[in-house]
Design brief:
The chain is an alpha+beta fold. The protein is built from 2 helices and 7 strands; from the N terminus they run αββαβββββ. The strands form 2 sheets. It has a 5-stranded mixed β-sheet, with no helix packed on it.
């Protein structure tokens, strides 16, 4: 919108007559996508969970699920596993991840389900042992 306003001013439109409203959120925070210090994936801090095992296949991390994490994305972040995400509500599908094996459930039903064999890690929890392509 700023570019459009600038173009209109450049073409002689009186700035008083230019009205804009921006509809957006703050820029997304995408660990593992934007430039940040690379951290080696590790076990999450604190006592181990007692739930099913979650394996981040590419990162080489297997850890038991803990209900202390709101979603698989939260566990990935606790382990410093690089993960794409944006909305955390199942709307944008930025976090869609290949589900190698296992089953999950959604804590918040996504606006549109992802392709079969994938899962939205931002709003899902495991119901069995899970292997993710992360």
């Amino acid at each position: 919108m700023d570019s459009v306003g600038g173009l209109l001013r450049d073409h002689g439109l009186d700035p008083v007559r230019i009205h804009t409203e921006q509809f957006s959120a703050l820029p997304a925070i995408n660990p593992g996508v934007t430039s940040t210090a690379a951290l080696r994936p590790h076990q999450p801090p604190g006592p181990p969970g007692s739930g099913p095992l979650i394996t981040f296949a590419r990162s080489g991390i297997t850890t038991p699920w803990s209900p202390a994490h709101a979603a698989l994305l939260d566990l990935a972040e606790a382990c410093d596993v690089p993960t794409r995400w944006s909305c955390r509500t199942g709307v944008c599908h930025t976090c869609v991840t290949h589900l190698v094996s296992g089953e999950t459930t959604y804590t918040t039903p996504p606006l549109e389900p992802p392709e079969p064999g994938t899962v939205l890690v931002c709003c899902s929890r495991p119901t069995t042992e899970v292997v993710l392509d992360l």
